[in-house]
Amino acid sequence: KHNMMQPTNRFKKSIPVLLVGLPKFFLHSAAFTSAPCHLPLKFPHINKDAHVSKELAPRRPTLLRSELAQNPVEPNSDSASGSRGSKEVSYAAILKVIDDFHQKDITTACPYLPKEPEVSSHSWVNNSSPKPYQSPITPILSPETANGLRSAAQSYFEQTRDETRGAFGQEVADLGRILSTSSSSASEELKKGLYEALIQQIYPLVRASWSNHDALLPSKNSHDHYDEEYSQQFPSLVVTSATVAAAGGYPGAKGAMTTLERDAGLFTVHIDLGNENEANPHDAMGGIYLESLVSSDTITEAVVGPLSLGQAVIHRSNERTAAFIVPANLRDVADSNQSLDSTTRRNIIQAAETSRHYGLRLVLTTTGVASSKRNETAKENDGDGLSGVSTQPEAPAEERAYRLRNFARFREDRIRYLTLAGLLDVDDHENHLWLGFDYIARVDNPEYRVDVNQRLSDVNKAIFHLEKAAELGPRDARVHFQLATALGAKMDCEKSLMKENSAKSETEAIQLSRVAAALERSAILESTAVKLGINGINDLATCLHALAETRCKMGEFDKALDVIDRWAECGSIRSDLAIENVGKIDNGTGGRLPMIEWLKTSDTNHKIAVKTIGDVPVFTEDDISMLRDAADRRFSHANGVPTSRYTMQYEGNSEVHLDDLCAADPSLKMRIDKILQNKVYPLVRKAFANDDEDSPEGPLCVYDSIFVRYNGDQARALGRDGASQPLHQDGGIYSINIALNSHKDISNENGFTGGGTFFEAFTDDQNLSSIQRPESPGHAIFHKTTARHAGAPTTSGIRDILVIFLTARKSEEADNVESKTWRIERAMRLQSIAKELPSRDLLIPCLEIAKSNDPTNSEMSYWLGVHLLQGDMNDPSDERWNEICYGVDVLRDSTLLNPADARAHYHHGMAISARHKYAMRTQRAHLLPPADEAANSMINAFEMAIRLERKCAGVGCKNCINLAAGYLTLADFMARLKSFEKAIVYLEQIEGLVSEAGDLDQHWAPSMLQQANSMMEFCTAEMAKKKRSEVLPNEEKVQTL
């Protein structure tokens, strides 16, 4: 349940697709209606409900070509995105629609901003590698204009906000709308300031910096070459988009003002508008992240800034960038920490919370130049004559390609549109990225029914385009991840061909090495964006998971451990809630913490969990009310849409992440942060103070936290025993379960029945109940995440709880990757990876390493033992014999580490039986323990498993092990030892166990019952034969006498 960073596996099926920071028009809900059905499409950094402009919306089926010829295409017509059932529209017609859109934008998008004056001469500088950006030291906007724009935007946002409770998030608004709400005099003054900036500085700077850009030059149809000085009709620069963005200024605020994306048009201008809080103007400043500047030397190399008020950054629009908030001392901090939780990242977070920051974003393009010669040529090359119906200027090639990618998302023949985009702009890596992605999506679409050879052909095309994309855009993390996806798909196809044709391909080691290299490159690039707060950790965690799995498949477990440590660190910075600060505690209760008592097993005195008791709760009544109100608002706004990132959900359960609630309510975040600092963290340290080996060295922090609502009535109405969670372990190191309302035993008003935390360790305890609940609302139960537990069924009413999972940050004093914290994380993640590995030669070593990293976790021994026994039982080698014996021992160890685990006892019994059968078949009976000893061990194992499982089932928390199979195995073993009476005793219970479990209709039930009946007949016959052999000697004696 809590393995929330585990993605779908590409190498079993597919690596999850990493689509970080796509252009906004790709994020509409209809973007991939017929593309990847198997690949999970994730857009974690952009709202999936982001507004899509009218021009970018899906259109009706296209007109036929003949109709197009008779009716010239208008900008609002439907000719560029028809259905596949219609005749294909010519490339010329498609491009004409795009040119119409472009013409409409340059004339109507920002009419209040000036166009560049007509240019009659141009100095062309032969610079094949221009600087990727320009950022003049002198501000482009005057302080009066910059402050005025910020004030106008602030007023506009305040007027248009819904109920935000102070969590404003990222706000973006069109500059024209902002100016329209200002007074006429103020609006005119602002327009005047913008006019001066554009005419006097921005347009000249763009033309001087990118003088050899094709879109800034006259048409090459009339000039085969350019002189250094010449006079022609030049396209004019014009603004087609002007927006103001704001972010920050409250607890939990994100630093990113815009998402990491590219713009339409040719050039983008970011102008810093300063802070809302003018009292501390230098605490937080603006900055621009340019993906093309990412360097392995230092993360700040990718940042242009800090920017002063009115200062601008100008770059090509095909650069992927993000505006974000940076501290004023960004360049002064020598950050040698290579971890994700760097000093720079913490300073950026602090700066983002200090004040709300604003920025202006302008997108520039050119008017284009009409060319009659172009239309004459087009008429000759295009039989329908559509290209010649207008002398309207062409849109720049970059913009044509951008819009083609936009149209492609609505069509089944996307590849045709993307191919045209690639032909128009051969240097844009996005065209190759999307072509590569679409070929992968085609291969993974289950409706794409072609043979393996065709699939391999498509995969090779994807690899070609993605390798080209990596060449053109080497610093785009998405490209390298998609390349790894395609390489993994190629491995799958070639394996299928080898099975069909016995053909040989590249060695698997070479293929995996290429996959690992692509994933490593993607992870390095994505790490920079995470360290600067541009992106969250989800995509990086997904990439590192895939990389760790790939390293394990290569048998490079040492390298895999390094990757897993990086993956685990993602979990430690996942939450925005406060981390432990041991220097100061002020809990508002005179320094008093809740009192605690340990819950221990009666027989071994083993500490399992801690309960808070007394008159000082973890959450006060006001805290509870505030949290439940926030959850109620979230559930009501969701309208039935899942609010949890966890994929395993049960009827009657509703979940919402605490981080999401706090992101929408800064006052709640402040309250939760105070509770963590002053109660939760100190309590955990106090409770586990004597547990030196397990005590984290770094500061404690939240791995994740969820508000869980169990609705017992709803679950019962759907046929379940109640609202519950199955037996599991948690992620992180410690789990805290806080009660938010009363049980019926405490309050008959609005209380719930059933419910509570089922602790497996107390299943067979004589003194403690296996189900534990905090003593009253606001109190808590703490335990280690490795303690197996379940949510017992809530049979009626509503039960609300808050569950907090804690881990720890890396210690700042030393690189403590060998600390207990990271070894626990290593073990759990290795265990999840091992189950996906393709061969036992890799799976077994992987589980052994997991066990060595956390030898006290019974799950590691359990899964190792299970897989050791699942090998080839027909292999007579000594190696296989030793493996089986090792499996028996490891499963016995698992039962000792967790004596209440019914699964471990069950499989231990199965292992003893398997060892006995294997030894008899391979003539190793002399190596077996004495028969009585083996029989007693197996009987004890199965009877313990059955007793424990029945108790678990009795409280609604069963393991779902097959008890009937256990009895059948016992009967078989007893029959082999010729203990037919005992065998019959076990056989007689099998049908009742199958019926009790409700499995009589299962496909395996009839064969099991038939096998039991056959064995019963055999045992009965053998017993009768034995009785006759005993009677016969007595009759002979009588006859002799």
Looking at this protein, list some descriptive labels.
alpha+beta, disordered N terminus, 1041 residues, 29 helices, seven-stranded antiparallel beta sheet
Oligomer: single chain
Secondary-structure class: alpha+beta
Helix content: 40-55%
Q: For the largest sheet, list the strands in their spatial order.
A: 14-15-23-19-25-17-16
Total DSSP E strands = 25
Overview of the molecule:
By secondary structure, the chain is of the alpha+beta class. Strands 14-15-23-19-25-17-16 form a seven-stranded antiparallel β-sheet. Strand 14 and strand 15 form a beta hairpin. The radius of gyration is 34 Å and the shape is globular.
Concise structural overview:
The protein has 29 helices and 25 strands. The protein has 1041 residues and is α+β, with helices and mostly antiparallel strands.
Topology of this structure?
Elements: E1 17-18, E2 41-42, H1 65-70, H2 91-108, E3 121-123, E4 133-134, H3 143-160, E5 171-174, H4 175-180, H5 184-209, E6 229-231, E7 237-247, E8 267-275, E9 284-290, E10 303-307, E11 312-316, E12 321-327, H6 343-354, E13 357-366, H7 372-381, H8 397-408, H9 414-424, H10 429-444, H11 452-472, H12 477-501, H13 508-531, H14 538-553, H15 557-572, E14 595-600, E15 607-613, H16 621-638, E16 653-657, H17 658-663, H18 666-687, E17 700-711, H19 712-717, E18 723-728, E19 734-739, E20 753-754, E21 757-759, E22 771-772, E23 780-784, E24 789-796, E25 798-808, H20 820-834, H21 840-853, H22 858-868, H23 878-897, H24 902-921, H25 931-954, H26 963-976, H27 980-987, H28 990-996, H29 1005-1040
